[in-house]
Amino acid sequence: HPFPQVMNKSLNFIVALGGKDAFGRGTAIAIVKAPRVLPRVIRIPDELSPNGLSFCLLSSVIHAHLSELFSGREVLSYSQFRVTRDSDLWVDEEEVKNLRQALKGELQGRQFGAAVRLEVAINCPQHLSDFLLDQFELDPSRLYAVRGPVNLARLSEIVDQTKIPALRFPSFAPGFAHNGGDVNIFSLMRKQDVLMHHPFQSFQTVIDFVRAAADDPNVVAIKQTIYRTGMNSDLMESLIRAVHHGKEVTVVVELKARFDEEANINWADKLEHAGAQVVYGVVGMKTHAKLALVIRREDEGLRFYSHLGTGNYHPSTTKFYTDFGLLTSHQEIGQEVNEVFIHLTSLTKPKKLHHLWLAPFALQSEVIRAIRNEAKIARSGRPGYIIAKLNALVDESVIRALYGASKDGVKIELIVRGACSLRPGVPGLSENIRVRSIIGRFLEHSRIYYFRNDLAHDVYLASADWMSRNLFRRIEVAFPVLDKNLKRRVINEGLNPYLKDNYNAWELDSEGTYHRRKPRGKQKLFSAQQHLMDLLGKPNTE
């Protein structure tokens, strides 16, 4: 028999058998596939668990009963294993006639893409791992021997079965960016910009903005980008309702947002069927910018209302990702957001923008220009200061610019959650640069660029990390916070608390090792995330 199809990241066992089966055949190797419908973590009944809550893994149960699966055979050796497959959807955007239909076809085969990694138990006999490597056509360098379960993420199932308050985060309810009540969002935006800091402040304000636009008879058009939004989305339902109300609705849907392709294809189908203009951005580039634009007919003519953000229009992730969003009626920013949509729908070269930094055209050069400006200020004897909060920092040109600024005396603070290719604290190169990562209850996702600029305090929020893929292979937008009070909020909420954190902070040394930051001397423990929950969230009444 041929080797069975093994799904991506599924739990399986390879078993070496002795003896013969019921038909007298001496098959030496068997594969056992654990059904995906079974829980990976099993609670042991209380009557069998006198010491309180106890759990066992499905893999342990299968281990203990392998001999029962092969009655009459001798189980000589065994190991659990998991294969990781290439999950990219390979579609030539320039060749296919219908990208959406082509991706639908690719989705069906995602679970059985080419193998890229094999994980086995630490005690897996070599002849079994060699057999698996041969079957999956993998080099030995792709083999990983794992001590313990091959998928630790499954342990999260314990959370739903454990009701011990001390083992859980305290409940948290977000606050609101405005006073709430039956406020007219457009009247509010005409008076002032609205800054939202998720998840500490509710994403409901954004949902209300799009819902109000869909139902307002004076709104003539809505334009929005979608990178991730989930299978259930009030935002998407509002856009469909807006079409039914006779408004022009344009949605730029990124069909190749990894692991959200199915949801995005589903919404693209529904939107197009309703009558919206659905476009898929620029061939060869992902549309990662987070933009929504409402065009409203008012007494003085057409007026732009914009939402720009650092995170996705995904109601679920806004509950545990930190992000900033800005609602603004600033007309020049609205015009530039409209220019971005014109570029995405017509593929014409965008006009020169004065407020927005747009990738792949100008974002990297603007970032480097701002870094070099701080270096120039420092060389003249005045303080130069840069703070950046990112998910990743790997772009070589930006790193070289930061090194140059450090050598010129610019103080640089970097808050980088993930990959960081810059080496801080190297004498003569980067001794003025400090890098830290915050790993806590919420996933740090906001991108903030701060340049002191002789007390101008330039603050930009962005969808882009300082990575080549963001700067040159994606449509990304960095946008300024112009209101002085809101600038102060971004600095005092999105930057300063994270530089003070000594609870969830890890500092990177010049050799590439992270060290847990701890209170020094008489310092008190300080968590940036807890501080923001207390500052912006609703009071905990428990």
Topology:
Elements: E1 12-18, E2 29-33, E3 41-43, E4 55-57, H1 58-64, H2 66-69, E5 74-85, H3 99-108, E6 115-121, H4 126-135, E7 143-146, H5 157-161, H6 185-191, E8 194-198, H7 204-215, E9 219-226, H8 234-244, E10 248-253, H9 261-274, E11 277-279, E12 286-287, E13 290-298, E14 301-309, E15 321-328, H10 331-346, E16 357-359, H11 363-379, E17 385-390, H12 396-407, E18 411-416, E19 433-438, E20 443-444, E21 447-451, E22 458-462, H13 468-472, E23 474-480, H14 484-500, E24 505-508, E25 514-516, H15 528-536
Parallel strand pairs: 6-7, 9-10, 10-11, 12-23, 15-20, 17-18, 18-19
Antiparallel strand pairs: 1-2, 1-5, 3-4, 5-6, 8-15, 9-13, 13-14, 14-15, 16-23, 17-21, 19-24, 21-22, 22-23, 24-25
Helix pairs in contact: 3-9, 7-8, 8-9, 11-12, 14-15
Key structural traits:
single chain; 542 residues; alpha/beta; Endonuclease, Chain A; ten-stranded mixed beta sheet; eight-stranded mixed beta sheet; 15 helices; 25 strands
Could you characterize what this model shows?
- The chain is an alpha/beta fold.
- The protein folds into 3 domains: 156 residues, no CATH class; 169 residues, Endonuclease, Chain A (2-Layer Sandwich), CATH 3.30.870; 178 residues, 2-Layer Sandwich (Endonuclease, Chain A).
- Helices cover 29% and strands 25% of the residues.
- It has 15 helices and 25 strands.
- Strands 12, 16, 17, 18, 19, 21, 22, 23, 24 and 25 form a 10-stranded mixed sheet that branches. Strands 8, 9, 10, 11, 13, 14, 15 and 20 form an 8-stranded mixed sheet that branches. It has a 5-stranded mixed sheet with strand order 2-1-5-6-7, with helices on one face.
- α8 packs parallel to α9, α11 packs parallel to α12 and α14 packs antiparallel against α15.
- About 1% of the residues have low confidence.
